[in-house]
Design goal:
The chain is about 0% helix and about 50% strand. With about 120 residues, the protein is mostly beta strands. The strands form two sheets. It has a six-stranded mixed beta sheet with strand order 2-10-9-4-5-6, with no helix packed on it. Strand 7 and strand 8 form a beta hairpin. The N and C termini lie far apart (about 40 Å).
């Protein structure tokens, strides 16, 4: 079964950090680009970051540039999203997917930034 499962979310204070994981099964991450999206309460679905199949090129939304870092461990078939200097507006459910439009995603992982 082709599947991506996110984990690593939680409750953190503003300025804190989290590391999200996206573990693939049923296919190799070395063959695809991976996209992180997020859904904030009352807001639209937002693209956050992308990493290419080789793990050498990355892209970020302006809202997270210089705070978030995407990386890939092809041997572990896992993509990571390091969230640093978190803000309350980063609160939301974070999803990883192979679909550049954000479709075909799993249940996501909840990130809550609050004091």
């Amino acid at each position: 079964e082709v599947q991506l499962v996110e984990s690593g979310g939680g409750l953190v204070q503003p300025g804190g950090s989290l590391r999200l994981s996206c573990v693939a099964s049923g296919f190799s991450l070395s063959a695809v680009n991976i996209f992180w999206f997020r859904q904030a309460p009352g807001k639209g679905f937002e693209w956050v970051s992308t990493i290419d199949s080789g793990g050498t090129r990355t892209w970020y939304a302006d809202s997270v540039q210089d705070r978030f870092i995407i990386s890939k461990d092809n041997a572990a078939n896992t993509v990571y999203l390091q969230l640093n200097r978190l803000r309350t507006e980063d609160t939301g459910i974070y999803y990883c997917t192979k679909d550049s439009g954000g479709g075909d995603r799993g249940q996501g992982t909840q990130v809550t930034v609050s004091s």
